[in-house]
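Revision sheet: structure tokens.
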Amino acid sequence: MLDRNNQNQVSEEVIHSVERIINLGVADINYLIELASQNKRKRIRYCSHKNPSEKVHEMFIVHPNGAYVRPHKHINKIESMLVLRGEVDYVVFNDDGSIFKVIPMGDLKSGKVFYNSLREQVFHTLLIRTEWLVFVEITKGPFSKKDTEFASWSPNENDFSGRKTFMERVSFDAGKFIND
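Predicted:
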């Protein structure tokens, strides 16, 4: 169970644990969804690592349906994802922005792929298909913004009109890709 009094709230979206032993259950996932629902972007990231300089980063992440995850790739890092609740299409792009692969993912009950490990530097994004997506992400630390490269062919986070059009196109293309 998360000790709600023993954590480091870094921002409205990021919490770092200060516990030595971390246990999470269904009530904790519901609590994280509740926290996410109360902030502007409706997201929360609960980090089991104490600070960004640690060598391993394990994060419980909550995103709402419609969240824009700008296509990006990680430089010299492996990124693994384990879906705990919800469904998502994990979209991998070629460097030119065309879709390379779509991985329909869901929790264990869904019968879909529930674990994905991206072991090369390729652009990717998420198309969230349920009200909430809760997943674990594991990657190498320490965290540095320079280790993430955003796709030049994708709209900036603040370009609301551009990202809506972009995500509609990606969703349409991803649907065709899955059905082919």
